Structure to design on (782 residues):
DNA sequence: AGCATTGCACTTTTT
DNA sequence: GTGCAATGCT
């Protein structure tokens, strides 16, 4: 993706619209010609706030493109006066291709992209005003976790007890809510939050010294910039006279703030969204942003896009029956002129393997029957781990596929290593990257040597790289010093090359040799693995070369690295004839003729963590809604009676969602109507379940409890499977049998539900602390 | 310091 | 099953 940067924004904002801005072929009328009346209204209301409430498949992205085109064609706006914020890079690219045709070369000044990439770009230009170097590193989740892990080690916090991943999520939440470390510390409740509070300040400090920003910073720092420097805000307000925000229901608080700051003056803001498709609350998205838009902008014009162009009547009816179970929503009347189409199919399977095989067979037969290409099919799942069984079945059936997400290209170890080296070249203060590569491949700078350098840096209040530059003063043992000096010289040499303006791909290629990465990769793992890794590194270098060719301006490397950090492999989706596999979250905004929504089982979809809270279940339901509405012609739902999870297979219960949906449009295999049990999971437990009063069930996590009740305790060799029997069954004094450790006596029990652990003294294996969720304990009858 | 081996915790979704 | 972190050996 290329982001040419006009040298001086203030000049551009007063530049007159020039003749070549708008292509002669497009007139305001021709732009509006292929829109329906609602879409046209939204596109033509160019002044003042506009709220577009759009159902799935209503052509909202199309409407947005036309709106921008209309602004240009009527000469109301010049390209640089328009800002379009999208949810994915892919959406931005699709819009851009249309605008490019319309505005020609001038379209390069029209800023269009995700919040993160747009504001990374703003920070590149303005970050120095708030103390960030232009070549700042962008830390992804993985980098942030590493930083936290380091901090925890130094602060003597047990990373096992307080998972860095959860801490990171908590801090991210705090940052999104714009809570300072001090404020957070004041309101921290319970040990987990206190640990997070303790780390918050240190984490922020670590990132700042490293001249690094995490994903949240990319939104927060611009807010800080605008608050501290009103002239900067004025400059951007004056420049962007028309704001467009897609998927507004998924904006978080920081994004909301940014939008309001920028729209504050002219209020020419058009937001588009569907509250029913809000699925990112877990990362701070606040559905209230869209629900209260009219309160924020009382003069807002509301337009509803309710006609669905994508799906058949049956699919739409199913979708409405899903979302109808949610309380909090804006009522919409979706309709379509498309025919009823085929009924929705339900696939029931014994195991996840069989589920996958049935999907594979459906794909092959639909392909043969209707002449669909493989690219017509998509398989959605709730968790990335589910892709494996589907992949296996497709591979066996010879069906080509692609997996979107999961471990993407830029997250592979060898790619991240290479990126870390490159980041260091332009941002030597980047401690996380330095740590990552200083001794990989091994070059004799071990933990002790690193500690030495870190202590020296601490002492001198400088970065570790600066300590390395003065290695001779640090008093290192000669061996360590030699290694550090060699590393320093190697890096310096490449830094000089970058500064001298050498082609970045050449620098990168030279780095693979000089660092020993090439050699290391060639000897690691099996020949195939090592070849694949080496090819990934080559592919990265190829990407750099390509980027450099497209973007001949200065600072190519730093811009490339920043953009890479924000890239997802959804952006790289091609149109090759392959079946697409992805999570339901990743499917948002996409469309396929045939879609499979798989794993409709309690605890998986809805996911167990969500089952405890009504709000979370509603979000799961919206996720189901999003998945179902991706399908244009044919929708399949599937579930398996048993599923292999956490290293063992366990029985599963079909999802409540299957009981909620409109059974009239769904057909089981063979064409029979599906069996449903309405109200199976409703709140009043006495009706549906037989629960002993005052039992330990009262305190159980709902997921656990439902699973237990729905799948009655299994008997295995005449003995009860403890986890499934429930919390009360395992108590101090009881004897249990563990598949690996053999028999033992329970000494103590702690935690509840999923978190429940027990200390057990095994006869042979000794004393162990075991998580009941994973251990398949059985009670020994005495 | 660097390697191999074992053990252990762990799977929600992501810009 | 997987991936990483601690452990122990060279």
């Amino acid at each position: 993706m290329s982001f040419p940067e006009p040298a001086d924004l203030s000049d551009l904002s007063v530049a007159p619209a020039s003749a070549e801005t708008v292509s002669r072929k497009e007139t305001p009328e021709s732009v509006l010609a292929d829109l329906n009346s609602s879409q046209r209204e939204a596109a033509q209301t160019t002044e003042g706030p506009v709220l577009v409430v759009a159902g799935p498949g209503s052509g909202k992205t199309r409407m947005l493109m036309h709106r921008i085109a209309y602004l240009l064609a009527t000469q109301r706006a010049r390209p640089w006066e328009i800002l379009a914020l999208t949810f994915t890079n892919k959406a931005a690219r699709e819009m851009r291709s249309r605008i490019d045709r319309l505005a020609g070369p001038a379209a390069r000044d029209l800023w269009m992209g995700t919040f993160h990439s747009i504001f990374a770009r703003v920070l590149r230009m303005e970050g120095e005003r708030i103390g960030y170097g232009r070549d700042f590193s962008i830390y992804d989740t993985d980098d942030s976790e590493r930083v936290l892990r380091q901090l925890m080690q130094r602060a003597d916090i047990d990373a096992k007890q307080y998972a860095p991943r959860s801490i990171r999520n908590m801090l991210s939440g705090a940052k999104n809510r714009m809570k300072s470390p001090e404020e957070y510390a004041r309101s921290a409740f319970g040990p987990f939050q206190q640990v997070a509070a303790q780390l918050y300040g240190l984490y922020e400090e670590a990132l700042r010294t490293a001249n690094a920003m995490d994903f949240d910073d990319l939104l927060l720092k611009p807010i800080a910039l605008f608050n501290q420097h009103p002239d900067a805000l004025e400059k951007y307000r004056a420049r962007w006279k028309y704001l467009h925000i897609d998927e507004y229901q998924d904006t978080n608080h920081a994004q909301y703030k940014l939008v309001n700051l920028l729209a504050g003056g002219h209020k020419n803001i058009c937001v588009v969204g569907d509250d029913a498709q809000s699925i990112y609350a877990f990362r701070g998205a606040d559905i209230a942003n869209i629900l209260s838009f009219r309160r924020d902008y009382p003069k807002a014009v509301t337009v509803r896009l309710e006609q669905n162009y994508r799906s058949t009547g049956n699919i739409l009816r199913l979708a409405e029956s899903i979302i109808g179970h949610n309380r909090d929503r804006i009522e919409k009347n979706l309709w379509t002129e498309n025919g009823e189409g085929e009924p929705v199919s339900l696939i029931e399977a014994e195991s996840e393997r069989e589920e996958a095989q049935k999907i594979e067979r459906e794909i092959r037969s639909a392909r043969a029957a209707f002449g669909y290409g493989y690219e017509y099919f998509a398989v959605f799942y709730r968790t990335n781990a589910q892709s494996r069984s589907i992949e296996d079945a497709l591979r066996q059936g010879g069906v080509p596929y692609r997996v979107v997400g999961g471990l993407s290209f830029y997250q592979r170890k060898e790619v991240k290593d290479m990126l870390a080296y490159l980041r260091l070249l332009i941002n030597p203060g980047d401690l996380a990257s330095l740590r990552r590569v200083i001794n990989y491949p091994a070059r004799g700078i071990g933990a002790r040597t690193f500690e030495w350098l870190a202590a020296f840096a601490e002492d001198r209040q400088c970065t570790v790289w600066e300590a390395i530059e003065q290695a001779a003063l640090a008093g290192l043992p000669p061996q360590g010093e030699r290694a550090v000096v060699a590393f320093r010289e190697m890096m310096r040499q490449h830094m000089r090359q970058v500064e001298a303006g050498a082609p970045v791909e050449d620098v990168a290629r030279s780095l693979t040799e000089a660092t020993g990465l090439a050699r290391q990769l060639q000897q690691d793992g099996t020949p195939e693995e090592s070849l694949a890794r080496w090819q990934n590194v080559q592919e990265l270098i190829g990407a750099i070369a390509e980027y450099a060719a497209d973007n001949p301006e200065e600072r190519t490397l730093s811009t490339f690295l920043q953009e890479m950090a924000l890239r997802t492999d959804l952006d790289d989706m091609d149109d090759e004839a392959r079946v697409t596999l992805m999570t339901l979250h990743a499917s948002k905004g996409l469309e396929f003729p045939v879609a499979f929504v798989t794993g409709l089982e309690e605890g998986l979809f809805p996911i167990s963590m969500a089952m405890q809270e009504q709000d979370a279940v509603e979000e799961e339901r919206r996720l189901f809604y999003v998945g179902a509405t991706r399908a244009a012609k044919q929708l399949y739902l599937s579930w398996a009676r048993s599923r292999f999870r956490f290293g063992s297979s366990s029985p599963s219960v079909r999802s409540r969602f299957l009981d909620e949906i409109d059974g009239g449009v769904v057909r089981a295999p063979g064409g029979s109507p599906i069996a449903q049990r309405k109200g199976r999971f409703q709140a009043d437990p006495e009706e549906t379940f037989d629960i002993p009063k005052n039992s330990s069930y009262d305190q159980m996590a709902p997921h656990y409890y439902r699973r237990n009740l729905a799948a009655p305790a299994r008997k295995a060799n005449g003995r009860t499977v403890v986890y499934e029997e429930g919390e009360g069954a395992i108590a101090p004094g009881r004897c249990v049998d563990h598949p690996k450790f053999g028999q033992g006596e329970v000494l103590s029990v702690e935690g509840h539900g999923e978190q429940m652990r027990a200390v057990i003294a095994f006869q042979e294996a000794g004393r162990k602390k075991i998580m009941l969720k994973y251990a398949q304990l059985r009670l020994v009858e005495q």
Remarks:
- Chain A has 32 helices and 23 strands.
